[in-house]
Amino acid sequence: MQHRAGRLSGEIQKEIADIIAREVKDPRLSFVTVVNVVADTDLSSAKIYVSLIDPQTKEDVIAALNSAKGFIRSNLAKRLKVRTTPELHFYIDDTISYAIQMSKIIDRQIKEDELAAQNRPQT
């Protein structure tokens, strides 16, 4: 059963990404990417992880996704060949923004180290 949930998670991710991109007309969702979907083994619910370009809009995006949840689920039910469509729960995935932040810190530290090396007296 767990293998089926894994396959269905991939299908749900693809379909929800398409529904959000093509059918949901809310402008708050224009730059949302579906990163991962984790379906329960009994397929009663699914956790949908989304990524944002602008992390300042987290609350607006979650509100928009929760507002469109019924529309997304009904469209998902039309596309999937399953007896019951899982209940959808949306979460923000901060991994990408955290990675960008860490990359900036590393770049800044490298520049500081290079500058310190240039200012060090040669022996």
What this model shows, in words?
The chain has four helices and three strands; from the N terminus they run H-E-E-H-H-E-H. The protein has about 120 residues and is α+β, with helices and mostly antiparallel strands. It has one domain: K homology (KH) domain (GMP Synthetase, Chain A, domain 3). It has a three-stranded mixed beta sheet with strand order 1-2-3, sandwiched between helices. Helix 1 (about 1-20) crosses helix 3 (about 70-80). About 20% of the residues are buried. The mean pLDDT is about 90.
Structural class based on helices, strands and sheet pairing: alpha+beta
Put simply, the count of helices is: 4
CATH topology name? GMP Synthetase, Chain A, domain 3
Overall strand count: 3
Q: What fraction strand?
A: 15-25%
Give unreliable regions as ranges.
Answer: none
Mean pLDDT across residues: 88
Query: If strands are numbered along the chain, what order do they take across the biggest sheet?
Result: 1-2-3
Distance between the termini: 68 Å
Query: How many domains?
Result: 1
Helix content: 40-55%
Instruction: Categorize the overall geometry.
Output: elongated
SSE sequence, one letter per element:
HEEHHEH
Q: State the CATH architecture.
A: 2-Layer Sandwich
What about the largest sheet?
A: 3 strands, mixed
CATH class type:
Alpha Beta
